[in-house]
Amino acid sequence: MAGFDKRVNSYAEALDGLEDGMTVLAGGFGLCGIPENLIAEIKRKGTRDLTVVSNNCGVDGFGLGVLLEDRQIRKMIASYVGENALFEKQLLDGELEVELTPQGTLAEKMRAGGAGIPAFYTATGYGTPIADGKDVREFNGRPHILEHAITGDFAIVKGWKADRYGNVIYRHTAQNFNPLAAAAGKITVVEVEEIVEPGEIDPTQIHTPGIYVDRIICGTFEKRIEKRTVRT
């Protein structure tokens, strides 16, 4: 609804309705642009048996990695195992179901879900275990496999600026998977560094229009760096 104020005052309110067994889409790439406070709220709530869709599962002790500590994630759909030792251990021990997906395919699965497209064909993964059991069709002389779109019960997203109507801007590479997740969530929650007055955001600069956003909260962020390299 145009002009609807989507601000909430607490992280508990931001994730109201999140229940055991739901699917959560999480923006971010490594530790860049992750909704760190919303993840922390899921840990505090103790929500369990979650299917989490994200590029990767954070690192030990930060990001989505904190949800592995109490085994709150049942299934992880990701394109990268990353630097997470606990993720690796739970995978190898059979305690965590993992669906590894090529990164571009994962992005398109969420984009298609947000656009209302149920499935698409892609050449990526043909001839590998990724294609096992999937429909194959030939386009322009090349085999393609059928991939299904992804949507989530909740999408948790990190933005830079937003107005009270939920129009969001991401900052540089922190954009990554965030707009894809935002569009594909049934309930989309965005945490931002700053909420500005309506009209302060140039409409041509908006990355995620407010029509996709249900709740906005302003937070403070650690923005931890995954790997820091300095000169000796």
Set down the secondary structure blueprint.
Layout: H1 11-14, E1 23-26, H2 36-45, E2 50-53, H3 66-69, E3 73-78, H4 85-92, E4 97-100, H5 103-115, E5 119-122, E6 136-139, E7 142-148, E8 152-158, E9 161-163, E10 168-169, H6 178-184, E11 185-192, E12 194-196, E13 215-218
Parallel strand pairs: 1-2, 1-8, 2-3, 3-4, 8-11, 9-12, 11-13
Antiparallel strand pairs: 5-7, 6-7, 9-10
Helix pairs in contact: 5-6
Protein name: 3-oxoadipate CoA-transferase
Pathway: Aromatic compound metabolism; beta-ketoadipate pathway; acetyl-CoA and succinyl-CoA from 3-oxoadipate: step 1/2
EC number: 2.8.3.6
What's the short story on this structure?
The chain has helices at 11-14, 36-45, 66-69, 85-92, 103-115, 178-184, and strands at 23-26, 50-53, 73-78, 97-100, 119-122, 136-139, 142-148, 152-158, 161-163, 168-169, 185-192, 194-196, 215-218. It has 232 residues and is of the alpha/beta class.
Explain this structure.
Pfam families: CoA_trans. Keywords: Transferase. It catalyses: 3-oxoadipate + succinyl-CoA = 3-oxoadipyl-CoA + succinate. One of its GO terms (biological process) is beta-ketoadipate pathway. By secondary structure, this protein is an alpha/beta fold. Helix content is 20%, strand content 26%. It has helices at residues 11-14, 36-45, 66-69, 85-92, 103-115, 178-184, and strands at residues 23-26, 50-53, 73-78, 97-100, 119-122, 136-139, 142-148, 152-158, 161-163, 168-169, 185-192, 194-196, 215-218. Strands 4-3-2-1-8-11-13 form a seven-stranded parallel β-sheet. A hairpin with a 4-residue loop joins strand 9 and strand 10 (168-169). The longest helix is centred in the middle third of the chain and has 13 residues, at 103-115.
